[in-house]
Amino acid sequence: MVLFKGLRNRDFLFYSNYDSRKGRDLTHDRRAALVFFWAVTRHQVRVYGTVRKVGRQESQEYFHSRPRGAQLSAYSSRQSHLVRSRAQLEKKVLEVATKYPGEVPLPKDWGGYALRPIWIEFWESREDRLHDRLRYVFRSEFTGAWRIERLAP
Ligand SMILES: Cc1cc2nc3c(=O)[nH]c(=O)nc-3n(C[C@H](O)[C@H](O)[C@H](O)COP(=O)(O)O)c2cc1C
Prior knowledge:
By secondary structure, this protein is an alpha+beta fold. About 25% of the residues lie in helices and about 35% in strands. Strands 1, 2, 3, 4, 5, 6 and 7 form a 7-stranded antiparallel sheet that branches. Bound molecules: flavin mononucleotide (FMN). Flavin mononucleotide binds near residues 1, 3, 14 and 79.
């Protein structure tokens, strides 16, 4: 689960640690899928494509728009690596807070990903499990056209 930070042109944006488990996975294989799910209305949207890192400047702007506490935690924490104790994490945050009383620098291994979709599937719950599944497949950079296909539920 990551926060969806919005769309830019055709790209879906999210932020993470590049050296986390998912970050290392994405370094080896740029293919990724996002799943959005609305339990109450019974809708699902799946977005499949490839990711690339967003520019450092853009990551920096987002990083500095976050609360200072979140910046300190991101700087202090090597996401997905083992830690001995919570106390060790808290000590690190204190050290970083003392070192950077003003602006916290953008950690070198933290930033955004932009996922460019190859296809997007819209799933809508219908009676007796005969659900609707419509897949939009991206066709052309030039026209921005999508081919719409219906899939069996
Ligand atoms: C509501 C919610 C929002 C989250 N948002 C993010 C996020 O934006 N970025 C992120 O790296 N992790 C986020 N996390 C934590 C991730 O789900 C995950 O624990 C973390 O990224 C490490 O995953 P990994 O070890 O597979 O790399 C969020 C978790 C929850 C429950």
